[in-house]
Each structure stands twice: as C-alpha cells, then as structure tokens.
Design goal:
165 residues, 5 helices
Length: 165
Amino acid sequence: MKQIIKDGLIIENAWQHWTESGAAVSDIIGGRSQVILPLQFLEEHAHQLANAALCTGVLLLPDEAPERLLPYLGKLSLIAIHFPSFADGRGYSSGQLLRTRHGFAGELRAVGDILRDQLYFLSRCGFNAFELREDQDLQAALAAFSDYAWQPNSRLYQEAGGRAE
C-alpha cells in the first residue's frame, strides 16, 4: 500500500483513485470504502452516491473550478487537487479557496508532481495531506516542513490602497 504524508506524519494511504471510465456506481461501491472519484463522475452520479455507504473523495483537476464542489462539500471527506507539473500553481489557489472562502474542513490532499520545496507553502494554503510520486523519498519530503523557520510578519504586508509599515 502506498504511503502519504498527512498531518505531519507518514501513513498508509487508505484511499483508492477511481480512474476507470464508463464505470457504474455499483462498480465503485463493490468492495471499496474510500474512493477518490473524478469530479465529472461525482456530478453525474451524485444522487446514487449519496445513498451508498461509501466514503467519497473527489479529484479536482487544475482547470476545474473549486466552486463546482460547493453542492457536495458537506458530504466529501477528501478533496485531492492534482498538480500535473511542479510549475502549475493553480492548485494553490483552489486549495486556499476551498479552505478559507468555502470552509472545507476535511482532508485537502495535493496529488501529482509536487516537489519537496513546495510542501511548506502548500500547507500554508490549507493542504494537510500530500500524495507524492512513487520515486520521491517521503522521509526527505517530511523534513521540508522544518526548512523554514520564518513566519511572515503581517506588519510588512501592504493592504490594498494603504501604505506598508
């Protein structure tokens, strides 16, 4: 079983990504308890999934607006945001919006091409879980959270239309 980083610890990943196209809801429910579904599948089968004894997560792609998740936020245990490349920063904004504006309190997981140096900043955007590539060393990645001793000084930030101190 693959391991992930969650809440500062390396743990076993209990979730499975559902990637089969053309699947029926009954295909997903059989034998699985924690499944990460594509957003489009969730939208198409939400009424069937609502009655299933299934812990549902969803995978949000970079070009999918986080607002599409609003009707389901209260029922989702996990939102995984895909980073197709370390240079694609759209997932930072999606994570931040889900945590702060939309109040998502479940597991917010960064998935994909995520570099060790990005973990600290992803956590500052609200991500609390990280599913890294198979070739990455989780112990080394975990140490990334100790790389930065500084904390932003809010007094140095300039408010819109105001003056910086």
